[in-house]
Each structure stands twice: as C-alpha cells, then as structure tokens.
Amino acid sequence: MDCQRCLEAVSHEVRLRAVFLLWPLGKDLPNDELAEDGFDALPVGQEADLAELVEDEILLGLPLAPRHEACNLPAAEDVGGGASPFDVLKQLKRPQ
C-alpha cells in the first residue's frame, strides 16, 4: 500500500478474528440468534467458497487511507517545480 501523505510504501499487519455461524440457505435465523453479537451468521448452500470469505475479511481489515505514523510530506519543489500553474492565468488578466 502507498502512504496517503508521503506516497511511500507502507506496510500494515492484518490481525483478524472472526466467528461465523453457517446457516442453511433459505431457512430463517431465530431472533435470539440475531440478538447475539459474538458471531456473523452466513447463509450457505451445499458448498461455501472459503477463499472468498477470507479475502473479504482481509479487505475489510485494511485501512481506508493507509499512512505512516509520522512521515515527511514531499517538498513543493519535489512535486512540480518552483513555478505555479496559476502563473499563466496572470498573463491572461486584463488591466482595468
């Protein structure tokens, strides 16, 4: 992943713990099971794609905007040179 501040590479350790209740597809989950927050109920058919489930959990565990705890912002001369892109607009301005 790239840091959103300095655009350098940033690593992120993913540690996830998830508990799933596999529920037969098409059957309703009792209300007392819905009230408990200790697990996620997943309706499944005869076969479940565990690789897709693991991938989804990893993606949900990644930060939305990865960044270093402390990093240096790129200097203005590193980004695009010393000239401002608005200097061209000054030439178009008519004297009043």
Describe the protein in words:
The chain is an alpha+beta fold and 96 residues long. The chain has one domain. It is built from four helices and two strands, in the order βαβααα. Strand 1, helix 1 and strand 2 form a beta-alpha-beta unit. The longest helix has 12 residues. The N and C termini lie far apart (51 Å). The model has no long low-confidence stretch (mean pLDDT 79).
Fold blueprint:
Blueprint: E1 20-24, H1 31-35, E2 40-44, H2 50-61, H3 76-80, H4 87-92
Parallel strand pairs: 1-2
Spell out the key features of this protein.
single chain; 96 residues; alpha+beta; two-stranded parallel ribbon; 29% helix
Order of helices and strands: EHEHHH
Poorly predicted ranges: none
Sheet having the most strands? 2 strands, parallel
Portion in strands: 5-15%
Q: For the CA atoms, what is the radius of gyration? A: 25 Å
Please provide the count of β strands.
Answer: 2
Shape annotation: elongated
State the end-to-end CA separation: 51 Å
Q: Helix/strand/pairing class, anyone?
A: alpha+beta
What would the average pLDDT be, to the nearest integer? 79
Query: Treating each run of at least 4 consecutive H or I residues as one helix, how many helices?
Result: 4
